[in-house]
Specification:
Shape: elongated
Number of domains: 3
Strand content: 15-25%
Order of helices and strands: HEEEEEEEEEEHEHEEEEEEHHHH
Number of helices: 7
Helix content: 25-40%
Number of strands: 17
Distance between the termini: 34 Å
Largest sheet: 8 strands, mixed
Radius of gyration: 35 Å
Structural class: alpha+beta
Length: 346
C-alpha cells in the first residue's frame, strides 16, 4: 500500500475514533445531567431532592434533605392507657368509648327512634320528639389517643405528624385481670372489648363499651424531611402534604410515582464522560506529535466540552449546578488556551 495512503487512512481512523469518543463523552454527560435535572424538578414538588438513607441513619450532611428510609418501627416508650392499665407495644393506641343510646333516624319525611351504640353523645333536646327518648347527659369516659414516647424507623426518629400517619389498625383485646379495682367491678370482657352490660347480648340504655385499636408494628417506608435526627413534614412541599408513608419496603417510584429515579453512580458517570471526551480530543490531536503536552490539552478540551453541555442541561432548572458546570467549562477553556499558547511557542 502507498505510504501516503496508509498515513491518510490512519489519520482518518484516528479522527473518526476521536470524534466518536468525544461525542460519546458529551452524550453520557447530557443523559446523566438531564436525568438528574428531571429528578430534581419532580422531587422539588414534594419537598426537595431525595436521599436514599439505607442503613446510615441520621447524618449531619443530610439535614434538610428529603429522606427515603424503610424499616420496622422501633417503639422506644410504648403508649399506656392509665385508666385501664393497658400498655401495648405500638406507635399509636386508640381507645374508643361507645354508649348505648336513643338515636333519631330520618328517612324522607318520617322520623323514628332506635337504640344503638354510638361514640358520639346523642342530645335528646335536639330530637324532633324528645319525649320517651331521654339519653344520659354525658359519657362516663372519653375516647382518647395514646402515642408512643419515641418511634424510630431505620434509626430516624419520627415527628408527631408522621407517627400519627402510620397506617393500619388491629384490634387489641384487653386483659380484665389488669384492670384497676374500681373499673374491674363495672366492666367485663365480651368478645374483644370491655362492657358494663349485665347481658352483653341485650344491652340497656346507658351501657358503655370500650374497645382499642393499635397501629401494627410492621415494615414501612417513610419519605420525609430530616430535621436534626427526626423525620418531619416538609413545610414547603408543593404537593400540600410534605411526606409519604407506605406499608412494606418500597422504592422511590412506588412512593412517588411522578418522580423518576435519578441516574445511578453519578460520580462515575460524570468522570467517565470527561475521560471519554478527553480520549476523543487526544485522538484528534494525535498528529501534532507532542504527546505529553497533548495529554493535558486533551483533558482540558474534554473538561470544557462536558462542562458546557452539562451546564446547558441545567439551564432553566437549578442555578447551582448550572454555575458549577459552566465554571468548570470556563476553567477548562482557559487551561486549553494557555496550553495551546505554550505549545505554539515551542
Amino acid at each position: 500500500m502507498n505510504p501516503r495512503l496508509r498515513l491518510g487512512t490512519r489519520a482518518l481512523l484516528l479522527r473518526g475514533g476521536g470524534a466518536v469518543l468525544l461525542i460519546a463523552g458529551i452524550g453520557l454527560a447530557a443523559v446523566t445531567e438531564r436525568g438528574l435535572r428531571m429528578h430534581h424538578l419532580a422531587a422539588a414538588r414534594h419537598g426537595g431532592d431525595v436521599v436514599q438513607a439505607g442503613s446510615r441513619g441520621p447524618q449531619p450532611e443530610l439535614h434538610g434533605s428529603m429522606v427515603l428510609v424503610s424499616g420496622t418501627p422501633e417503639v422506644i416508650k410504648a403508649p399506656h392507657d392509665g385508666d385501664f392499665n393497658l400498655s401495648v407495644v405500638t406507635p399509636v393506641l386508640d381507645r374508643r368509648v361507645e354508649m348505648f343510646q336513643w338515636r333519631e333516624v330520618r328517612v324522607g319525611g318520617s322520623v323514628h327512634y332506635e337504640m344503638d351504640w354510638s361514640d358520639q353523645l346523642q342530645v335528646t333536646r335536639k330530637f324532633k320528639q324528645p319525649g320517651g327518648h331521654a339519653n344520659p347527659a354525658s359519657f362516663p369516659l372519653e375516647s382518647r389517643r395514646f402515642v408512643a414516647g419515641l418511634v424510630r424507623v431505620g434509626g430516624f426518629a419520627l415527628g408527631p405528624a408522621l407517627v400519627h400517619a402510620l397506617p393500619g389498625a388491629q384490634t387489641v383485646t384487653p386483659e380484665p385481670a389488669q384492670l384497676p379495682a374500681n373499673l374491674a367491678a363495672s366492666f367485663s370482657l365480651y368478645h374483644d372489648y370491655l362492657t358494663t352490660s349485665a347481658d352483653p347480648g341485650s344491652p340497656r340504655l346507658g351501657d358503655v363499651r370500650v374497645s382499642w385499636q393499635a397501629v401494627p408494628v410492621q415494615p414501612v417506608t417513610v419519605f420525609a424531611q430530616l430535621d436534626g435526627d427526626r423525620l418531619v413534614r416538609a413545610s414547603r412541599a408543593d404537593d400540600g402534604q410534605g411526606y409519604q408513608i407506605q406499608v412494606g419496603v418500597r422504592s422511590l417510584s412506588d412512593v412517588l410515582p411522578d418522580v423518576p429515579e435519578p441516574p445511578e453512580s453519578t460520580t462515575a458517570r460524570r468522570s467517565g464522560a470527561i475521560v471519554l471526551a478527553a480520549l476523543g480530543a487526544f485522538l484528534l490531536l494525535w498528529e501534532r506529535r507532542r504527546r505529553l503536552g497533548d495529554v493535558a490539552l486533551a483533558l482540558a478540551a474534554g473538561v470544557t466540552a462536558v462542562g458546557a453541555v452539562a451546564g446547558a442541561c441545567w439551564l432553566g432548572g437549578d442555578w447551582s449546578p448550572t454555575l458549577k458546570w459552566l465554571a468548570l467549562a470556563t476553567a477548562g477553556a482557559l487551561a486549553a488556551a494557555l496550553l495551546q499558547r505554550r505549545s505554539g511557542r515551542t
